[in-house]
Design a protein that fits this description.
alpha+beta, about 20% strand
Length: about 210
């Protein structure tokens, strides 16, 4: 194991502990992306969540991005990044442009993605199901990511997927507690509005003449 891998493993451990302590989804997703950029020293990145769609189809949505303008992830400018995400979803494994198998992406990206030189992307797997994708790139270093980086980045992505599920459970629990409190308040309001049987007026029958 080389020095880079040892450093990554140490940072992976620290970042995983950090993610496990955050149960707010709105704060967790940016934290995941920022941690991945920190871990890989990427220049830019975005996180995609996979949502179930009608039938067997799935919907993907960019939840948070760093270094990208919104318009750069749509239209022709976003063709390469979408191609990478689709390849990761199809294969359910990581993609890195320094590998022979994925080198074609870099050749396309140099023309269509404004000189992106290095790309790495991994699925966020939870019990064998892809719940998200991490995409990271670099426009100035063609060797920013290597095949040896994939296992550690994949392990981080899987830890992040678990953290996302935990945060989702916590959010659902909080929502349930809020709904329960609202129901209790509504019942209490109804109880206060209902007439008290003890306040009923007793009407005596009239005496016959």
């Amino acid at each position: 194991m080389n020095e880079r891998e040892v450093s990554w493993l140490r940072r992976l451990r620290d970042l995983s502990h950090l993610l496990a302590s955050q149960h707010d989804v709105n704060l967790l997703l940016p934290m995941i992306l920022d941690s991945a950029i920190e871990l890989t020293e990427a220049e830019r990145g975005f996180l995609v969540q996979v949502h179930p769609g009608p039938g067997d189809r799935t919907k993907i949505k960019v939840e948070v991005a760093r270094g990208f303008a919104k318009e750069s992830l749509s239209g022709a400018a976003g063709k390469v990044s979408r191609t990478v995400v689709e390849r990761v979803l199809e294969r359910q494994r990581g993609v890195v442009t320094t590998s022979e198998e994925d080198r074609d992406i870099r050749n396309v990206s140099s023309v269509q993605a404004r000189r992106v030189l290095s790309i790495v992307s991994v699925p966020m797997l939870l019990r064998g199901k892809t719940v998200g994708v991490l995409y990271l790139d670099h426009r100035f270093n063609s060797e920013a990511f290597t095949e040896q980086d994939l296992p550690i980045l994949a392990a981080f992505a899987d830890q992040a997927a678990v953290a996302m599920e935990t945060a989702g459970f916590a959010a659902a629990q909080r929502a349930g507690e809020i709904r329960l409190d609202e129901t209790r308040r509504e019942l209490e309001a109804l109880r206060r509005r209902a007439p008290d049987p003890s306040d009923e007026i007793l009407v005596l029958p009239e005496h016959a003449p």
